[in-house]
Design brief:
The complex is a heterotrimer of chains A (about 475), B (about 325) and C (about 300). With about 475 residues, chain A is of the alpha/beta class. Helices cover about 45% and strands about 15% of the residues of chain A. Chain A has a five-stranded mixed beta sheet with strand order 2-1-3-11-6. The longest helix of chain A is centred in the first third of the chain and has 25 residues. By secondary structure, chain B is an all-alpha fold. A two-stranded antiparallel ribbon of chain B has the order 1-2. In chain B, about 50% of the residues are buried. In chain C, about 65% of the residues lie in helices and about 0% in strands. Chain C contains 14 helices and two strands. The longest helix of chain C has about 30 residues. Classes of the chains: A alpha/beta (about 475), B mainly alpha (about 325), C mainly alpha (about 300). Chains in contact: A-B, A-C, B-C. Chains A and C meet through α1, α2, β2, α4 and α13 of A and α2, α4, α6, α9 and α10 of C.
């Protein structure tokens, strides 16, 4: 160490200069950053200011999740100029601000826009029954569409089925417009090829739950499970129609009381049925959290039949090409029972901070218009919508005959149950936590029924979100 | 503590020492200045904001309403999910951290040996860190599935009835621990151990050998003390990261089944971005923060007993 | 000084393995079996991802899974990813952001860690505690205040929020790691240099940094991987598709795996696998090439006995 002379002592001044140079370098690099990036984002620049050159055009910024059936389809609609929206509205510049992922990505992003006051004109909302109303009422994020509709001469009731309007209204105001609205898991998809190979009878549209269970017992082998609630899942949202079919309603009309026990025997039977599928009859793999996703099990031919969302009707046959698929309606309790249903809504709303509400309203009605949605369905891009005119159009059934079966269900659709304090997800989670344990055989139906009632009521007793 | 000077020293020496001390302090502050500036400008504000938020009811979209200690009282008296989620998180960390530490150290020692094509082995062991979590989670769900999974199939072959793994309230956390170990044993923790092992002077081991120390004695008396700073580093951060675990539970089980993997991080996330209860989420975060920082503080206090720094400057 | 620091020729033998050659052979065999087993367990999911990225979607779901794609369509799948999404743009952005942030991280974390390890500044333990505290608080609750702060700076939809903070400290993880390594370097070295009249700045560059090369290489590699895969901040602070980085772009494909049965999407997991690999590739290459720097480290030979 001492052999090598240490060079001249560096003064503190030199040190300061060093720090200063570094800081300067940082600043310089930072200043260079935007210019180093050739694509200096033209339109979607957080809504700071309208880009130069678009002075005469009104910009409408629409926030939505990046999805095949949302942003992809709307973009395709623009490209195909459906309804002549682009040609007829040269003054409107529609900017789709897409956010990749799903609610875990979308919600924080929208919240930060809103907190910074830079939210655009239109905003998409995911299927979270009734919590979406809070965005209009207590959060003041989206505005009542009624006055705008009146001004534009747009009749809500003429366009949408009653259930869909009810689902999006509160206290006389309508905050959202349906974009995807569909009956919740109304059909069973089954592996027709394998069912025929095994010499099993085909499933039918008028089965009872008992008949389905009997069929599943016959169909289950060492290799394959007969039936699986799949998309119905373990929550009250996916299972809404199932519960209603048994005569069970999750909440009272204003969503302040959990009403599972109003028809306790029926509720216990409904829970017992799901318990038996997996634990007594052993015809179902577990649908509880941590399980393999339903499409993988169905596509892997490990289950023969499972409940599905309507949008899968168009997608499954194109995805699982190893076998033929057929669809039947989900069962009822007693033969001939009226079919009960529930509505799933993905919606768009107009923000209270919208700078161009009239142009935005025009874009909104186009998103949710007839031709746009009929084409979306026929082209296999998106799910159904609660519009009578779409369901009355023969072109739909030419491409997707299964939708003929859903038509009566859609026309008598019942709205989603209400969670009065807008804690819909918490309500569902409280329910799921108990049903998971039931399905895993760790709880009995009687006990589960009481626990569900208590846990969901505890959520409803919390103050509004 | 660092603040103590030496007032009892003779005056003449004292003035010289204090001059040196002063220049040391000034230089030290200069070196720390990037952090001090960065913290003040970028971090302090949001941190203070979240402290403030924890005393309010705040949903981001409406102005916050001051509610005093209500959020904290609610957490401990009315929120049935809060305390269980903390115990659950500790249970997970208690399994994961010791096993992960031992596993990573073991792999680091293994890969620090003379091996053919070391580079390739080390890369292979590091692969889980680079495997996308979604792909890994998908595969693990297949392998651990009680009905059609590979693991229980193999167990059945040797006459063992496998548990429900992710589909069991008892086994869900151990399953996540297994996934977590797979993902991290050969990862950054191992790399840091490996870097630490490089700093063990060869001649120290040699002289220990001359003194007649066996393999184990050399490891215990020479290697381990010399890598204790990296062990300490991995332990402190391992505990922090294990307690903050979010993604694996979010993607693989979403907190289920039956809340079996509902960790504190999921509870905070749910309150912040699902129920839009940012005030309450902040309160939960700060309670949780106090727990983690208490633990970390304790580790630093105890570290004097076992962590050996060659270049430590005692006061 | 430099002459005292020698490059090791061989890795340090931590565990010696017997003396008799037969025994040694048995040890050696067991040792390799162990290493190979561990490597197999580690690599299977990655290679499964590779294979899956060349399958058609219907084959991806087949059970039992096929080991190799029946009709390999690697080129078609990757072509589809490349055509459908602006990955070229995202890669450029990612490289730019990662490189710029990493540079800042290495420089500033070395300076700060040196300050923490070698200077008895009053309150440094408190400062260090605060540094660590920043990684203890769940990010959810500071996210929106941070967004508002950067909005004040006019940094939204720019790369500044991702780069500039890295120049001011480089994050608690890196500061802590560097501090641990610097504290492992005998202080006698600094003392001796000081007696020779070297300034602290000179000690840093001529003694500490050369001895810390493995640590710096570790910070660089792990920092690259962390920055490259960083998701939440880019998602929140960037708005336009052209500004996104690969980690955010990857979410465009990540749909079918999301929890919740109501997620609507055409299954495209085979594309997700391929895109994930593309995104992981730079990290893999960097790790493969960079590891010799932190693994063939420096031994402080002859300094302390």
């Amino acid at each position: 160490m001492n052999e090598q002379p240490i060079a001249r002592r560096l003064t503190r001044r030199a040190f300061l200069t060093g720090i200063g140079t570094t800081a300067f370098g940082v600043t310089l690099l930072a200043a260079c950053a935007p210019s180093a990036d050739p694509a200096a984002a033209p339109a979607a620049s957080g809504g700071e200011a309208a880009p130069a050159g678009s002075a005469e055009r009104t910009q409408v910024r629409a926030h939505m999740v990046q999805k095949q059936d949302v942003s992809d389809w709307i973009q395709m609609g623009l490209d195909q100029d459906i309804d002549g929206f682009v040609t007829e509205n040269p003054d409107i510049e529609l900017v789709l601000e897409t956010i990749p992922g799903w609610t875990p990505e979308y919600i924080p992003k929208i919240l930060s826009f809103a907190a910074a006051g830079s939210l655009g004109d239109l905003v998409w909302y995911p299927p979270r029954h009734r919590s979406h109303i809070a965005w209009g009422t207590s959060y003041d994020l989206v505005t009542d569409l009624r006055p705008l509709a009146e001004g534009a001469g747009y009749e809500m009731e003429e366009n949408f089925l009653e259930g869909a309007i009810t689902a999006n209204s509160f206290g006389g105001a309508t905050y959202w417009m349906s974009f995807i609205s569909e009956p919740i898991v109304p059909v069973i998809a089954y592996n027709k090829t394998k069912v025929e190979e095994m010499g099993l009878p085909a499933l039918t549209d008028d089965m009872t739950f008992q008949e389905l269970a009997d069929w599943a017992v016959e169909a289950t082998t060492d290799d394959v499970f007969g039936y699986f609630p799949a998309d119905r899942g373990t929550g009250p949202f996916g299972s809404g129609p199932y519960l209603r079919q048994w005569g069970v309603e999750p909440t009272n009309e204003d969503g302040t009381k959990a009403t599972f026990l109003d028809n306790r025997d029926a509720f216990v039977q409904a829970l017992q049925y799901d318990y038996d599928l997996r634990n007594t009859l052993k015809v179902s793999p577990s649908p509880a959290a941590g399980a393999i996703n339903a499409p993988e099990l169905f596509g892997g031919q490990k289950v023969l039949a499972g409940d599905i969302w309507p949008f899968r009707i168009a997608i499954y046959p194109n995805t699982f090409t190893d076998f033929e698929i057929d669809f039947v309606l989900t069962p009822v309790v007693n033969a001939g029972d009226a079919r009960r249903s529930m509505l799933n809504e993905h919606v768009f709303g107009l923000t209270t901070s919208a700078t161009a509400p009239d142009a935005a309203f025009k874009a909104l009605t186009w998103f949710c218009g007839k031709e746009m949605n009929l084409q979306g369905l026929v082209q296999g891009q998106k799910g159904p919508i609660a519009r009578a005119d779409v369901w009355a159009d023969e072109r739909l059934y030419e491409t997707l005959p299964t939708f003929e079966k859903l038509r009566p269900i859609m026309e008598s659709i019942e709205p989603d149950y209400v969670v009065g304090n807008f804690r819909g997800v918490e309500f569902d989670d409280a329910y799921i936590a108990v049903v998971d344990a039931l399905i895993l055989g760790e709880k009995q139906a009687e006990q589960a029924a009481d626990e569900i009632q208590d846990a969901t009521q505890a959520v409803l007793d919390k103050e509004p979100a | 503590m660092a603040i103590t000077t030496s007032p009892s020293l003779p005056a003449a020496r004292s003035s010289r020492v204090s001059r040196m001390r002063r220049s040391e302090i000034i230089e030290g502050i200069l070196y720390l200045s990037p952090w001090i500036i960065g913290f003040t400008v970028f971090v302090a504000g949001p941190l203070l904001a979240s402290i403030f938020m924890s005393f309010t009811k705040y949903n981001v979209l409406r102005p916050p309403v001051f509610v005093g200690l209500d959020n904290f009282v609610y957490a401990f008296t009315k929120d049935d999910l809060f305390l269980p989620s903390i115990w659950r998180t500790f249970y997970y960390a208690l399994l994961l951290v010791p096993l992960g530490m031992i596993g990573s150290l073991f792999v680091a020692i293994l890969l620090n040996q003379k091996l053919i094509a070391t580079t390739i082995w080390r890369t292979l062991y590091f692969l889980p860190t680079l495997t996308p979590l979604v792909a890994a989670a998908l595969l693990w769900r297949w392998m651990l599935n009680p009905d059609v999974g590979l693991v229980n199939y193999l167990l059945a072959k040797v006459g063992i009835e496998g548990p429900g793994w992710l589909n069991s309230t008892t086994w869900a956390i151990p399953s996540l621990v297994i996934m977590g170990l797979w993902a991290s044993v050969g990862g950054s923790r191992m790399i840091i151990f490996l870097a630490g092992l490089q700093d063990v002077p060869a001649e120290l081991l040699e002289s220990a050998e001359i003194d007649g120390a066996g393999t184990w004695a050399k490891f215990w008396n020479v290697t381990l003390p010399l890598i204790s700073p990296t062990i300490f580093f991995n332990l402190v951060l391992g505990v922090i990261f294990a307690l903050r675990t979010f993604e694996v539970a979010f993607i693989a089980t979403n907190g289920g089944p039956a809340r079996a993997t509902w960790f504190i991080s999921l509870h905070i996330y749910q309150n912040a971005f699902v129920s839009f209860d940012m005030g309450y989420a902040s309160a939960l975060s700060w309670v949780f923060f106090i727990i983690i920082s208490g633990l970390t503080f304790l580790q630093f206090k105890l570290s004097g007993q076992w962590v050996f720094y060659q270049g430590e400057r005692k006061e | 000084m430099i002459s005292k620091v020698e490059r090791t020729v061989e890795p340090v033998p931590v565990m010696d393995t017997g003396s008799a050659s037969a025994q040694r052979l048995t040890w050696r065999t067991m040792f390799y079996v162990l290493v190979i087993l561990g490597a197999l367990v580690s690599m299977v999911p990655f290679f499964w991802t590779v294979i899956s990225s060349g399958k058609a979607i219907n084959e991806l779901y087949r059970y039992p899974p096929t080991f190799w794609p029946e009709n390999p369509q690697f080129i078609e799948n990757y072509q589809e990813i490349w055509d459908k999404f602006p990955f070229d743009r995202w890669f450029i952005n990612s490289f730019y952001v990662t490189f710029m942030a990493l540079l800042g991280t290495i420089i500033s974390s070395t300076l700060v860690a040196y300050g923490f390890a070698r200077f008895r500044v009053p309150g440094r333990e408190i400062f260090f505690g605060i540094t660590l505290a920043t990684i203890m608080l769940p990010v959810e609750v500071t996210l929106i205040p941070t967004y508002l702060l950067f909005k004040e700076f006019g940094w939204i939809n720019t790369f500044h929020p991702l780069i500039i903070p890295a120049w001011f400290g480089g994050g608690a993880f890196n500061i802590f790691l560097m501090r641990q390594f610097i504290m492992g370097i005998p202080y006698d070295l600094d003392e001796a240099a000081k007696l020779d009249g070297a300034s602290s700045w000179r000690i840093l560059w001529q003694i500490i940094v050369p001895l810390c090369k493995p640590a710096i290489a570790t910070v660089a590699t792990l920092g690259f991987i962390a920055q490259w895969n960083s998701f939440l901040y880019p998602l929140i602070f960037l708005n336009s598709e052209e500004k996104y980085v690969v980690a955010v772009g990857l979410r465009y494909l990540q749909t079918a795996v999301t929890q919740g049965s109501a997620v609507v999407s055409r299954p495209q997991d085979h594309l997700l696998m391929g895109a994930s690999l593309m995104v992981a590739a730079p990290c893999l290459i960097l790790f493969f090439l960079g590891q010799r720097y932190f693994i063939q480290g420096i031994v402080t030979t002859g300094i302390k006995g």
